[in-house]
Known about the structure:
There is one protein chain. This protein is mostly helical. It has helices at about 15-40, 65-75, 80-120, 130-155, 180, 185-195; strands at about 45, 55, 160-165, 170. The strands form 2 sheets. It has a two-stranded antiparallel ribbon. Strand 3 and strand 4 form a beta hairpin. The radius of gyration is 38 Å and the shape is rod-shaped. The protein starts with 12 loop residues before the first helix and ends with a helix. This is MADS-box domain-containing protein.
Amino acid sequence: MGRNIEIKYIEDSTKRQVTYCKRKKGILKKARELAILSDAQICLTMFSSTGKLAEYVSPSTTMKEIFDRYQRENHVDLWEAQYEVISTPISLFLYALQEELKTQQEIGSRLKMEIRQRRGQDDFSELSIEELSGLKENLAKSLETVRDWKSNYGSASPTTGLFIDGGGIDCKSSEITFQQLDPSHTDLHNEAGAA
């Protein structure tokens, strides 16, 4: 029936490629025929020596279904070991990112609280004695900055919108932010710089 050809590695790359192409077509044809004749679920995957993929999956199924069934029948998880190797560094990286996020959120909430306190928008009854004394010192520094500015410039500033008239300070807008008064405030900039 068939030719008696010795099965051994083909040294010549051209002959090897031609043999692969012919036999690949034959194997794929046999897989199709077997699927049609016996209603078998077939999944055939081949890679040539150059890395080119050739595959056949019977029409009644998908490759995923075949692999899932293979895992169930053989009680083996094809993917678990690979995912464990990959997931360990990812888990560590994710944990580090979550810790950094918590740190940044704490710094952000402290800065927001300090800004609310300086604007007088926070409930001072919740503050401790130390926090109140710190706030008092910050307000005193800000007041000193305003007085220094008043004595040095004595006229309207287009950037802050402040006007000095004889005995006091009027404001064009209804709010004066402390960043306008003291842009080099150490607490705010140190907190943000420490992040």
